Amino acid sequence: MIAHLLLHLLVLLLFAPLLPGVIARTKARFAGRQGPPLLQPYYDLLRLWRKGFVLSRTTTWVFSAGPVVGLVVPLLAALLLPFGALSAPLSFEGDLILFVYLFALARFFTAAAALDTGSSFEGMGAAREVTFSCLAEPTLMFALLVLAKLSGGLSLQTLFGAHLPAAWGSGAGPALGLILVCLFVVLLVENSRIPFDDPNTHLELTMIHEVMVLDHSGPAFGMILYGAALKLMVLGSLLVRLALPWNSGFWLFDLLIYLGGLLLLAVLIGVVESVMARLRLVRVPQVLIGTSLVSVFALVLVLR
Amino acid sequence: MSDVNSVILLVVILLNFFTLGSARLVACIRAVALQGALLALLPVTVHGFSGHSLILALGAFTLKGLFIPWLLLRAIREVRIRREMEPLIGLVPTLFLGVLATVAAFLFADRLPLLLEHQEGLLVPASLATMLTGFLLLMTRRKAITQVVGYLILENGIFVFGVLLSTAMPLVVEAGVLLDLLVAVFVMGIVLNQINREFATINTERLSALKE
């Protein structure tokens, strides 16, 4: 039990920073550049870890709590989630609600830390982040409801259980396809990727997520980057399990399928970021409401 | 074959949502053209290869997928219509109404006394949903040309319903429906040109102001 839990976390902690590296490399290749080494995020984290803190005199403990919660929440959420065909260490009825709202907790603390600095730009970023994520939340909930209806259970372990290949083949296949697309949009929004947010922008007026972490430095900023990578991997796991639902029966193959799926997903994100322009800010809520409605429609398809 | 059908119908429903949520006129017309072309596959996928279904498919494809969209795009170019949709109520509320209508169509289709082989598939709910979407577009858009688009989607919905009956329905009836549609679009095109020449705009709100 304890060994299972530790292994689960070890896979997450060791593999997660590779994903941003793969995304950056894909984007560089699209632009005709060499790109940073694949392990660059690991070097960045090490470098940030060795630096010192710079704390503004106007900030309180809330400011330092933001990065810590942002790092811990994906770890807790990962415990509830099966990695591919590997079962989740913790599982109970209704843990999908906890899963969704753990991320809401992290968002609350990130926004609170941003507001704590008293900077008007950070307040603006916090307002945008909260608006967009509250529009993305219904999509995620409806998508999980579709899976819950198909599996008959309420824990993430049963939601992403062994019945998925059969479900794809049955009449529920189209609904699963719809929620796969919806979950991909949620992944892009939650991880502040193009077309919803640009992780590389350095213009305060257009930033959403990036502006909230401007005042963090050194190890705190490292925690934010690490937390973001973990979040990408945890939310990506949902998609990978849905798209590649096979159980081989041998744990090593399962792990390889899962990690390979994650790498494919990272390449896919890189391609999307390379070929799409950013949406105008006013269009983002419309797109998110659209995906919520599509996931409602998917729910109608499985309920009838 | 039922898998192919349900995928086609699903894409058709998603295209309904797209036309309701899109702000661009040309994109809307392209979406309707795609919808028509996809629907043209339906007679073949539902009833299998036969002379009857092939003629139906070819006729629908050339008219709905190619000719009418081409006419509409030409009309946009000639009359120099502004390329925005100008909805009467906002795009997001229309989209909401569209999804509500689709859900209602699904609920209603479950209660219809259908033949056993029609109860499972998406054909009946998709046709009802597409018709309702067409009505919604007709009601909520200001321009005459977007009303033509709404009319086309409405006809697409009727076509889906007709596919259910197409073995029983003689070809002449189908041909008649398609001809009706073509004539209607022609008339609309002429009217559009006329309105444009007389009033220098094709906004239908101005037309109602004429009575006062």
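qc> Chain A has one domain: 2-303.
qc> done
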